[in-house]
Design goal:
Keywords: ATP-binding, Nucleotide-binding, Transport. By secondary structure, the protein is of the alpha/beta class. The chain is built from 10 helices and 14 strands. It binds adenosine-5'-triphosphate (ATP). Adenosine-5'-triphosphate binds next to strand 2 and helix 1.
């Protein structure tokens, strides 16, 4: 149907937005590959929701261009295969969950069978609430319904703005599994979440926004750097210390770059009479890295 399949799911170039004298977004460019999960992180007011809204054509940018699934986002067809869960969602309280889904697929102009709607509700844990009025739903159940709305038409790109803010820990774990299964099916996901652990677990790449600009972006490996090895050692002779160079030391705790052969290193230390009390692989967490990046960002 003329859609360019090998184009990225999202291509956004130099997006800018001012609200009166406040610059909300200041030259943000990014792509989301097909089947890729991109995490959007940043402090309150960094511009994340504004970027998402401009990307989806819900807010007009002052500058910049966006292609969604190979089409300019100004073309209404570009959004047909995009599912969106807004940050602030409110569904018609007088409708049942199934009616909300029916309404949304009708508005999107797509055909979805009753069976597919039931399956989508089951996917978000609302199988037995399909006929219940949304007005009586808890916040978390409304958020689950929002996810169902985003997923019901089998999109190629899913944009989730804080999808788990109202969910209990089990619900969050469900959403994580859901995101991983979308990824397996080649669906691209843009995930805006303050839950860094969640982003760290499911995202292939992360973009960190601060004051409307990209403070950092890259794969987790690029952002977090090399893994390291922490050792708790006593009786370290100068000869043994040479095996650990270069290292960072705090008392008996040594941190070195993760060697290719950890058992060989430990055997070497033991042979030299070193007391090896603990050996654990470590990596700076995304949370620590995020805080560092935000502190360093002008
Ligand atoms: N409709 C609007 N009118 C005026 N200012 C706005 C509007 N929408 C956003 N802003 C401003 O733009 C900036 C970015 O807001 P945005 O909602 O994009 O941030 P965010 O990163 O999504 O924040 P949060 O993590 O709190 O959701 C803020 O300073 C906000 O006050």
């Amino acid at each position: 149907m003329g859609q360019v399949i090998d184009s990225p799911a999202v291509w956004a170039s130099n997006l800018r937005k001012r609200y009166k004298r406040r610059t909300a977004v200041d030259g943000v460019s990014f792509t989301v590959g097909r089947g890729e999960v991109l995490g959007l992180l940043g402090p309150n007011g960094a511009g994340k929701t504004s970027v998402i809204k401009m990307m989806l054509g819900l807010v007009r940018p002052d500058a910049g261009e966006v292609m969604l699934l190979g089409r300019p986002n100004t073309d209404p067809r570009s959004r047909q295969r995009v599912g969106y869960l807004p940050e602030l969602f409110r569904y018609q309280p007088w409708l049942s969950a199934d009616e909300v889904l029916r309404l949304h697929v009708r508005l999107a102009g797509v055909k979805v069978s009753g069976e597919d709607r039931r399956e989508t509700l089951a996917l978000v844990g609302l199988a037995d609430r399909a006929g219940d009025r949304v007005g009586g739903f808890s916040k978390g159940m409304q958020q689950r319904l929002g996810l169902a709305v985003a997923l019901v038409a089998g999109p190629d790109l899913v944009v989730l703005d804080e999808p788990t803010s109202a969910l209990d820990p089990l619900g969050r774990a469900d959403v994580r599994d859901l995101l991983l299964s979308l990824k397996d099916r080649g669906v691209a996901v843009l995930l805006n979440s303050h839950l860094i652990g969640e982003v760290e677990r499911v995202c292939d790449r992360v973009m960190i926004l601060d004051h409307g600009r990209v403070a950092a972006s890259g794969t987790l490996a690029e952002l977090l750097g090399r893994r390291s090895l922490r050792l708790h050692l006593t009786h370290v002779t100068p000869e043994a210390a040479a095996l650990l160079e270069p290292c960072e030391r705090e008392g008996d705790r040594y941190t070195i770059a993760l060697p290719d052969d950890v058992p060989a290193l430990v055997a070497g230390l033991v042979k030299l009479g070193v007391g090896v009390h603990a050996v654990e692989p470590a990596r700076v967490s995304l949370e620590e890295r995020l805080l560092d990046i935000l502190r360093e960002h002008p």
